[in-house]
Recover the amino acids of this structure.
């Protein structure tokens, strides 16, 4: 994705739609800062050319090679922080695994069959029980309202 020399003062709002990009060029733009999470979901990004004023997203530790020339910074080879020997700032809870989520970003995904808050619930969502209770409550409330409001409709 070539966004070089596009007079960008900030990251475009639709940038998240380009999360499948492998190569991204942002050079020759008057960018001064990158908001945190600008590259959230960019797990396939392998080469990122940036203006010299900006650091590589996630820091130099998130990339295998950072090259600086007179007008740009080239970040190459995104590292998987889940496989690194460095201690993670936010270790994943029990029943979950670490997964990359962009340069310098990670996420915790629940192991199967766990789900929910901190992956503490096991099994699947009880759809039949939930649907039965919801349907029963809806029908009961509808019949109650129909019965009580019917008298008022007859008097009009």
């Amino acid at each position: 994705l070539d966004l070089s020399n596009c007079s960008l003062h900030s990251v475009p709002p639709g940038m998240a739609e380009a999360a499948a990009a492998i190569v991204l060029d942002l050079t020759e733009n008057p960018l001064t800062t990158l908001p945190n999470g600008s590259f959230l979901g960019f797990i396939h990004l392998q080469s990122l050319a940036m203006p010299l004023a900006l650091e590589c997203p996630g820091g130099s530790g998130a990339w295998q090679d950072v090259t600086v020339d007179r007008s740009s910074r080239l970040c190459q080879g995104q590292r998987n922080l889940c496989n690194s020997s460095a201690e993670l700032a936010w270790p994943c809870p029990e029943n979950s695994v670490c997964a990359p989520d962009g340069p310098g970003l990670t996420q915790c995904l629940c192991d199967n069959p766990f789900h929910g808050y901190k992956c503490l619930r096991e099994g699947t969502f009880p759809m039949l029980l939930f649907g039965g209770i919801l349907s029963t409550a809806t029908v009961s409330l509808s019949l109650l309202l129909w019965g009580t409001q019917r008298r008022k409709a007859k008097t009009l």
Summary: Helices lie at 127-155.
